[in-house]
Amino acid sequence: MRLLIVEDEPDLLRALARALREDGYAIDTAEDGEEARYKALTHDYDAIVLDWMLPVLGGMDVLKALRPHKTTPVLMLTARNSVAHRIEGFDQGADDYLGKPFDIGELRARLRALIRRSKGGSHDRIEIGDVIIDTGAKAVSLSGSAVTLTAREYQLVEYLALRRGKVVSRTELYEHLFDENEDSLSNLLDVRVSLVRRKLGAAFIETRRGQGYLLP
Ligand code: CA
Predict the structure, then answer these.
(1) Cα 59 to ligand 1 centre (Å)
(2) How far from each other are the two terminal CA atoms of the chain, in whole angstroms?
(3) How far is the CA of 127 from the centre of ligand 1 (A)?
(4) How many A from CA of 63 to the centre of ligand 1?
(5) Are 90 and 136 part of one and the same domain?
(6) Among 61, 157, 189, 208, which has the minimal tally of Cβ within 10 Å of its Cβ?
(7) What is the number of domains present in the chain?
(8) Which domain CATH number covers 76?
(9) pLDDT digits (tens, 9 = 90+) for 95-105
(10) Chain segment 177-205, per-residue pLDDT in tens
(11) In terms of domains, do 11 and 103 share one?
């Protein structure tokens, strides 16, 4: 999953990006509203964390610019903890809201819930042959034994598992699993696929030459 974090306080932006990268998300960042608007309209993010008070263009204006074009889940951050602002945010298409200061654990949990809802999934358990993926616990087992995946290996498995039976193109995987600083012309994806195959079996991920990958 790839997220955009929009926050103009550098320390908070760094802390959020670091925490969410630890969860395995690919993270893009923006420090003002104009950069946020451009990135949010250019990429298909799985969710956006959007600060309310931003230079150049406010968070609410970013949301208004986005909504006619994209349904990307948006969680708004703001120090303005008033009911009127929350209502305005929801009316303009925000999906969730967190008042500053907030607990990073709560932000993580709200993002998980937002992303789960937007993918239409309430299922926490996906079974593919001998592999069981628990999307709630972000845990994977093979023939009943827990398999240790890195957060980013897990993200690849979950992304493909949620689209089981469909060929997912390399372009889509780069769009959702890698951030703006990672080069789609490199072999990062191939490396990650081969690490997952080493742990879950060579046949777990099928390669369709010239098309992409799928979980059968
Ligand atoms: Ca701000």
Answers:
(1) 9
(2) 21
(3) 42
(4) 15
(5) no
(6) 208
(7) 2
(8) 3.40.50.2300
(9) 999 988 899 99
(10) 999 888 777 788 999 999 999 999 999 99
(11) yes
